[in-house]
Every structure is written in structure tokens, then in C-alpha cells.
Amino acid sequence: MSTSPDAEIVQFDNVGLRYGTDREVLSDVSFTLHPGSFYFLTGASGAGKTSLLKLLYLAQRPSRGAIRLFGTDAITLPRDRLPGFRRRLGVVFQDFRLVPHLSAFDNVALPLRVAGVSEKDLARPVADMLEWVGLAERLQARPATLSGGEQQRVAIARAVIGRPDLLVADEPTGNVDPEMAVKLLRLFEALNRLGTTVVVATHDVHLLKKVPESLIMRLDRGRLSDPTGALRYPPRRQAAPA
Amino acid sequence: MSVLSEGLVRGWRSLSGSGDNELVPQSRLSGPMPWVIAIMIALTVIAAAAGLALRNTATAAREDLSGGITVQIVEAAPEMREKQAAAALERLKAMPGIVSAELVPSADVDALIEPWLGAGTLAGADAIPVPAMIDARLDGAVSAGRIADIRSELKGVAPAARVDAQSSWLGPVFDAIQSLQWIALAVIVLLALSTAAAVLLAARTALGTNRGTIEVVHLLGGTDAQIARIFQRSIGLDAVGGGAVGLGLGLVVILFVGKRFAALGAGVAMGGTLGWTDWLLILAIPFVGVVLAMLTARLTVLRALRQML
Prior knowledge:
The complex is a heterodimer.
Chain A: E1 10-18, E2 24-33, E3 38-43, H1 49-56, E4 64-69, E5 72-73, H2 82-86, E6 89-92, H3 104-114, H4 119-132, H5 148-160, E7 166-170, H6 178-193, E8 197-201, H7 205-210, E9 215-220, E10 223-225
Parallel strand pairs in A: 3-8, 3-9, 6-7, 7-8
Antiparallel strand pairs in A: 1-2, 1-4, 4-5, 9-10
Helix pairs in contact in A: 3-4, 3-5
Chain B: H1 3-11, H2 13-16, H3 32-65, E1 68-73, H4 78-94, E2 98-103, H5 106-117, E3 132-138, H6 144-155, E4 161-165, H7 166-169, H8 171-209, H9 211-219, H10 224-264, H11 267-270, H12 276-306
Antiparallel strand pairs in B: 1-3, 1-4, 2-3
């Protein structure tokens, strides 16, 4: 399935989300994400960033509104078509969600194996990716033996190994030192230059300055504001606020 | 970690690769699931063998008795009884459709009665007037019409003759055997259901234990079929181990009991000997068990996964 360069890769239209009978954690959220763009999603803790990302990576269905992903209605998408869409996504979970039984190598290789890539074809890219994130010596280490920062880097390597069309990262640099944070952002940028749309949720305002071409989405108590005009159609590119 | 969880880890290998040797199970028979399956398979093998042996016993006895008739000369006077018995025997041998006919020796009749009445009850002045017996075999099945024909033939030469089909005496025994066969079948069905229920519970538990991992695989684009295959293969491996042990246990019991029955040397007991088709059926039980377990695991997991997004 291909996406035309001009089409929105993601489109939210008046999306609301509530868990059970609680109040809405997201209200009237509308925006579009364009192919090849780099977005930061900011907001205070509890603003709804993770919930919005869950909708983006198809872990949650909205309570109301419409979501189009890669030009397709994601809400009425049958279950058997979800895996195909998910394979076009790369996700860095806030809590990493590494598979505890698997080594760092096998965790990073998992998306490729799920997609049916042969062992012969995946061995080199996975090793290279782990080397790139500074874990060449820890290929066979299990998550429990890795530090928080190392686990985060494995999670990022797993998210980007399949060259996804859309990369969604929830606080991807929260557990790494500033030097590694910059390095990981460079990886996201490199991926972005190759055409991947990147959405990074963070509350680290310093991080926003590191990617001048980025667009800002700000969530405030479940409602989205548009400080850079990123969410309009067509979006207005603007440097991140100082 | 439960056996199914360990098995699940083994199952991940298709998605996890084989690089991590620690994923290889330390011991396949270290937990309850393979042993539950082993016990179920052993009981099923024993129940199936019992059912098949009973069926063979009934079949052999039916074949043995299907053309058999017994003519009794119920006459108190010994001379008259012997005279009528000889005449009846001669007439029977001359009748068309009678394959063989022979007088049961009084010694054999005495031996049959001895356990109840004591020895030597058929001889001497105080002999008990036991009927003379002729064992005859027809060339086909015994029917009421043929019995009636034989009766009318014998009426002239042996008025004290009573003619009975041998199979009719064993009718209640055949009914009892058939009931036991049904019970064996019911036991097999219940054991299969119990196995399926045990696998279902184990699969649900494993699903709960590994829910986080399953969600991750889902979110990475794993399909329900891929995930179900992992559980299916995991429980399949447990079922293969359990099935092999269960079959071994069952065979030991069958051979032991079979040896005991063979030592009886009785005709009916020998008729229950298992044939090669019976052994094939018994050997197929673990394979059916494995398929049942894998199918149950697959359906359980697929059903549970459908509840997830």
C-alpha cells in the first residue's frame, strides 16, 4: 500500500477519547500529519499525549470522531487489516515494552520477523542498528540486565529497524544522557529525511530546539493547540519557540 | 514460570530466533501440563483397549455361537433318555443344513455340574436325572423357523427333546458387554473433554501471563494466526511429550492385564485378544490427543485475541 506524497498520512477529525465512563481525556482533537514531516507533541503530564499516541499507533479506538491513517478510515478498519497498517508504524513506548524473554538482538529483530524477513536478511541490519545505538556489546543481553537508557535505545532500535512510514515515540529520550538524546534525535531526523513522518512526544522543551524544522503540537488537558500552525492544512512551518 | 509459559517462550523462537540458548527449555516434563495430558492419554488408551477387547470378546462369542443349537433330552428314565438321545443324534446328522452334531459326553456334563452338586452325581442308583445334551452346528445363522423345523423333525424320534439356540442363552451377557462398551466410549469422550478443558485453562492462563508480550507483538504487526501458532506449537510439544508417556503407561497396563487374562485360558477371555487394527487405533490415541490439544489451544487463543484490538 503506498501513500501519495501530497496525501495526509494521518488525519484526526473531532476525535474524542474517554476510558470507561470517566471524563474525556481527549476532546475535539483535529489535525493532519503530512508525509516526511517532523512533529513534536508537547504538553504537561496528564495532558493526553500518550492517549493521543495510542490512537496513532492503533492501540486504542476513539470514543468519537474520525481517524484516517495512510488514507484509510482507521476506525472501521477490520481487525485482519490492522497488522498490515501496524507494520508501517514504528513505535517507541514510554515504558519500552521490550519482550523480557528475548535478547536485545531478538527484540530489535522482532518487527522484521513478524513481517517475515528471513534470518539471513535481518542479521546484519539488526546488528548494525544495535551498534549504532551503542549496544554492539550487548546483543545477547536480556532487558532485565540492561540499564533504563540501554533499554530505551533497544526500544528505539526496534521502532526504526523496519524503516516505518510513521514513527511514533513517547518520551524517547527520557532515560538517556543528553549526548545520547541528541544522537537519537539525529537518528529520527535521518529517518525523517528518508521520508518517515516522525511524531515525538516530549515535555523537554530543550529537545524542541534541536530539530529546527520540526512542527509543534501542544496538548492542554486533552485539547490540542497549534502554536506553529502545524496542524492547519496546509501546515505553516515555523521554528520551535525559544 | 508455568510449563505453558516456558513452552510459550519456546514458541517465540519462530519470532525470536534461535540465538538465545536460554530460551531452550530446561526440562520439558517439569510442570503439570504434560503430566495431565499423559494421565489423560493413559486412561484413554486403557479405556479404548478395554472397549475394543470387550467388542472382540462379544464378536468372537457371537461367531462361535451363531450357528450353534443345543438339543436337550429331558427324560427322567436313563434308558429312555439314552435311546431318545441316540435317535435324535442320528436324525440330526441326517438332516440337511446340520454341519455337525455330537452328544456331549456325560463326563463333560458331570464336570459342568460338579461345582454345584459335587462329583459322581450322574452315576449310580441315586443319580440325578440330568438331561442328555447334543451340541449341533447349523450351516448358517439360527432362526426361529429353523429351530421350529428341527423340533418337528425330532418330535417323532425323541419326544422329550428341547431345542434352543445357544446364542439366546448369552443374550443378557451380550447386552452387558455392549453396555460396558458404551461406558468405555463415554469414558473416552469425557477424557477428551477433560483434556480439552485442561488445555483451555492452561492456554487462558498463559495468555494472561504473557498478555504484555502479546500486545507488543500485536502492535508490531503480528497477526492473530502468528500468535496462535506460538501457543499451538507450545502446547503441541507438551502434548507430544505427555502423549508418549501416557501411551507408554497405558501399554504397560494393557500388557499386564492382557497377560493376566491370557493366564485364565478360558475361551471367552481369549476371544478378547486385540488385533492389529485395534493396536493401530490405540497407537493413534496420542496423535489424536496432540491434535485435540493443539486445536483447543488455537481456538482458545484466537477467541481471546479477538477481544483485543
